[in-house]
Every structure is written in structure tokens, then in C-alpha cells.
Prior knowledge:
single chain; alpha/beta; two-stranded parallel sheet; 9 strands; 17% strand; elongated
Amino acid sequence: LQHSAALVGDCETIRRLAIFHGMAAERIVTFPWGIDLEHFSPGERWAGRDQLPQVERPFTLLSTRSWELLLGADIIAQAFVKVARQRPDVRLIMAGSGSLASRLHQIFLNNGLIGEQTEEGSVDGFPRVIFPGQVGFADLPRLYHSADLYIAATHSDGTSISLLEAMACGLPAIVSDIPG
């Protein structure tokens, strides 16, 4: 720590420990994890969805983590293939991007969950897997509100901001059983 240019920690406890171990206080930035509860709230959850026939409302899973091995993007893809075989009324929204993009697309393509033709990889006109890309801060609540379940399969994590956002929007979550 004495030779580090800077340290970013998430609480005062980390700051004090870093100073104790030789880090200069002016090189420490404390950036507490948290979310804007006015921006992320359950207020508009599923707005208008009850007016659609059930056939037009596939059960929607949402993953917003980067497509990296450490964050379990491959596990999400492989698990969804298994779910999709048993439940044709389920779809997956995989927001984000990452180094596993081609691998994930190949998993979905090989299993008929995405494809060239409109009919292929769809649930009564809805795509089975949706890739909205990187979603901006302003649009994140709408993304959380469009889903029925938030999922994450990370191998390592601290406090997950996306999990906090999903929960603040009232979205139930299934996540890895890890200390974070």
C-alpha cells in the first residue's frame, strides 16, 4: 500500500485499515456502494403487462452482468438452454457485453434459441434470447421492470450494484451462493 498510487475503497473501515498499513490518506478515495432509490424503485413494475394475454407475456429472466468467465455468463447461457428445453414460455434478456460474446451467441445458436429467421428462437413472436447491449443508467429501471426474475452466476463478487438495483425495483433474484 505504501507504494500504491491510489486506493479506492467502499467504506471508512477500509480507509482506516489502509492508513494503518502505510497508505497516505490523500491517496485514498472512499466510494461507498449504494444506489439511487429514487431512480431504482418498484413503482412502474410490469406496467401494462396484465392487459396482455398470457401468451404474449413470456416469463422473463434478466442478466445484467458482463459476459466474462468470472461473472458466470457461460453458466447463465448453459442453464438457460436447459430451462428453455423444458419451458418454451421463458425468455432471457442478457444485457451487456464482454469477452464471451461469440461463445454465448454460439451456445444459443447451436440450441436454436437465436437464429437468422424471425420464427426461429421465438416464443409466440417474442425472441427467446434478447441482447440489448450496454444499457444506460437512465434506461436501467425500465429494463428491470420488464423482467420477472434477476439472475447472476458470479464466481466472485463483493456488493453487486446490479443486484441492489434489481432488488430496489422489486425484482426477485436468484444469485450465486457466495460470501458477497
